[in-house]
Amino acid sequence: MAQNLSVLIVGSGAREHAISNSYEKSTQVEKIIVAPGNDFACYKRKKEVIIDKNCSLKDPQSILRIAEEYKPDLVDVAQDDALAKGTVDLLQENKFQVFGPTRNVARIEWDKKWSREFMERQGIVQPEFRYFDNENSAKQYVEEIYEKDLGKLLYVKATGLCSGKGALKSVNLEQAIKNIKCMKNFPDGAGELFLVEEGLTGEEFSYYAISDGKSHYLFKSAQDNKTIFNFDKGDQTGGMGAVCPEMATKNLVSEIEEQMISKAIKGMAMEGVPYKGILYLGGIIDKGKPMNIEYNARWGDPECQVVLPSIKTDYVDIIRACLKEKLKEIEIHQDNKTRVCVVGASRGYPKDYSQAKVKRIFGIEKAMNLEGVTILGAGINIEDGKFYANGGRLFSVVGEGDDILEAKQKAYSAIAGINVEGNNLHYRTDIGWRDVERFLKEG
Ligand code: GLY
Question: Which atom of ligand 1 is nearest to the CA of 238?
Answer without folding.
Answer: 2
